[in-house]
Design goal:
InterPro entries: FAD/NAD-bd_sf. The protein is an alpha+beta fold. The protein has three domains: about 220 residues; about 120 residues, no CATH class; about 55 residues, no CATH class. It is about 40% helix and about 20% strand. The two termini are about 30 Å apart.
């Protein structure tokens, strides 16, 4: 979680993650009061997300269930009835789904979970849950709804976790975000997403710990198959009393550990396939985008993802190393929720451009925004932007083998070696001018 003034002084942009709703975890329930003492603060919104489509129609999910259902009814009475049924069953279904997602990965824990689920839901209900957990977004959405607009609105959430519409297991996140967005809204960090980072660092230091940044780790020390500490590049050894937590790529972890001695595990680590990258465009704005519906200015996220077919094409092209003919765009409007992130009357815009291949082998056609451009009123055109910066995946190898490092560029310093990425950023941002 990182926030900075990447465009102009006074404009605070979340470098990557903006939505902090998933931080409402058992850890926060236990330590929330202490974190608040160290400055953690949230900015809630009752209008978490919406989608805008080329035909000028839009659909948004708000914490007012009756309002959200009425919007869905505008597309399909059948879908409104299906949404109502999902809403009514959400508390019980969410408990079962979150139980699976939060279970320790051990045979004993999983066995206990299976037993509890079968006792509560019966054989048929347990099998339905297992089937749902393995379904793709498209399979579940086609089975549940009839409107393509409703399907695309929810399917866009799968793309946040790199679950394109046809990837198995992708139905869970669109379901949870749709239902949880209506039930609880969304929370951002007050002043920026780094409120979590700052509060946790302060909490660690208050307990006698320390946080070192910019320090290279040369190896993870092991004894009898257990990680016992780390060795820094200067030879310093730091012992771990309980565990070593390594937020690395699989290949990076292999290099630091020197291997695990398990051929099957090591082969999986070496051949791990990464999902496509993401390009971030941060904008300092005089005003919000010119959405065709004024109500869209109330939402934290506005997705520009016209259809499940388009999302599937974009993902497949990026995985093949092709610059997609059309990106999926997540337009974040944090200052709608938290005006403190910009000077009075100004705004910041957070554009997440998905999917970007880490290494571009070619492109489908000139990098344009065809679907967005076909909208009756392009919401990004003629908006008043002041400055922008770009963060994109750059293929830079490091000693830790974490191959995807962010590169932040101003509007005039996007590296020419990334000409295709430069073209995409320039075209997207030019359409705002």
């Amino acid at each position: 979680m990182k926030t900075g003034e990447y465009t102009l002084p006074g404009f605070r942009h979340d470098w990557a993650a903006m939505n902090l709703s998933l931080f409402a975890s058992a850890f926060h329930q236990q330590h929330g009061a202490e974190l608040a003492q160290h400055g953690l603060a949230f900015a809630p919104t009752a209008n978490p997300f919406a989608s805008l489509f080329p035909d000028g129609k839009w659909l948004g999910v708000s914490s007012d269930a009756a309002l959200t259902t009425a919007r869905i009814r505008g597309f399909s009475d059948t879908d409104a009835a299906a949404w109502t049924q999902l809403t009514e069953s959400f508390p019980a279904d969410a408990e079962a789904i979150l139980g699976v997602l939060g279970s320790p990965m051990s045979l004993r824990a999983l066995g206990t979970l299976v037993g509890k689920t079968w006792w509560r839901r019966g054989t048929a209900g347990s099998l339905d849950l297992a089937r749902f957990l393995t379904m793709s977004s498209r399979a579940w959405l086609d089975q549940t709804f009839e409107s393509d607009h409703v399907k695309a609105t929810l399917a866009a959430w799968g793309m946040h976790l790199d679950f394109a519409p046809d990837i198995a297991g992708g139905a869970v996140f669109p379901y949870l975000e749709g239902m949880a967005g209506q039930a609880f809204g969304m929370v951002l960090g007050q002043g920026g997403a780094d409120t979590i980072t700052s509060a946790m660092v302060a909490m660690i230091e208050a307990r006698g710990g320390s946080v070192q940044c910019g320090t290279s780790v040369s190896s993870i020390e092991q004894v009898a198959g257990r990680a016992i500490g780390i060795t820094l590049s200067d030879g310093t050894v730091v012992r771990a009393e309980k565990a070593v937590i390594a937020n690395l790529s699989p290949r990076g972890l292999m290099k630091l550990t020197g291997g695990t001695g398990d051929p099957r595990h090591e082969r999986a680590m070496k051949t791990f396939q990464h999902a496509p990258g993401t390009m971030m465009i941060h904008l300092a704005m005089d005003s919000l985008p010119n959405w065709p519906a004024a109500e869209l200015k109330r939402f934290a996220y506005v997705h520009l993802a016209p259809s499940m077919d388009q999302m599937a094409r974009t993902y497949a092209q990026a995985m093949a190393g092709q610059l997609p003919e059309e990106p999926v765009i997540v337009c974040g409007q944090p200052t709608v929720v938290d005006p403190s992130r910009a000077p009075a009357g100004k705004h910041v815009l957070w554009l997440q451009v998905r999917m970007a291949p880490g290494q571009i082998k070619g492109m489908q056609r000139a990098p344009l925004m065809p679907e967005t451009g076909r909208m009756p009123q392009n919401p990004l055109r003629n908006a008043h932007w002041i400055s922008w910066s770009v963060t994109h995946p750059a293929p830079v190898k490091t000693s830790s083998e974490n191959t995807w490092l962010p590169r932040i560029c101003s509007r005039r310093t996007i590296p020419t070696s990334w000409g295709a990425i430069r073209s995409v950023a320039a075209i997207i941002c030019t359409s705002i001018s």
